[in-house]
From TrEMBL:
First and last residue of the signal peptide: 1-17
Source organism superkingdom: Bacteria
Protein name (record): Uncharacterized protein
Organism this protein belongs to: Brevundimonas mediterranea
Keyword Signal: yes
Keywords annotated in UniProt: Signal
Length: 103
């Protein structure tokens, strides 16, 4: 049985003072990393910096921070963000925060 992480909070932080928050057309789908489940970790937070294309596709994403470190949250955030699409017209570099929690 696959345990899906609850995307409890999908918020965005501004990469620059002029960058508005990302508005998602299709939010990223993320799963709780297997390592976190095996070690009993119940939640995690990852901040990514991505360049969004004019049609809402996140590209060139980098991990800015990951808590807790070493549990696979960063890798899962990078995988999961590829499933999301921002509303059109939001091109540019943005920071996004993905929060993982078990149900």
């Amino acid at each position: 049985m696959t345990l899906f992480a609850l995307l409890a909070a999908l918020t965005t932080a501004q990469a620059t003072a002029s960058a508005p928050p990302v508005v998602w057309e299709t939010p990223p789908r993320i799963e709780m990393p297997a390592k976190a489940l095996e070690t009993g970790v119940k939640s995690g937070v990852v901040v990514l910096r991505c360049d969004f294309t004019a049609n809402g596709i996140p590209t060139n994403c980098l991990i800015v921070s990951e808590t807790p470190v070493g549990q696979g949250f960063g890798r899962e955030a990078l995988r999961g963000v590829r499933t999301g699409r921002a509303q059109s017209g939001q091109a540019g570099m943005r920071e996004i925060t993905l929060t993982f929690e078990t149900r």
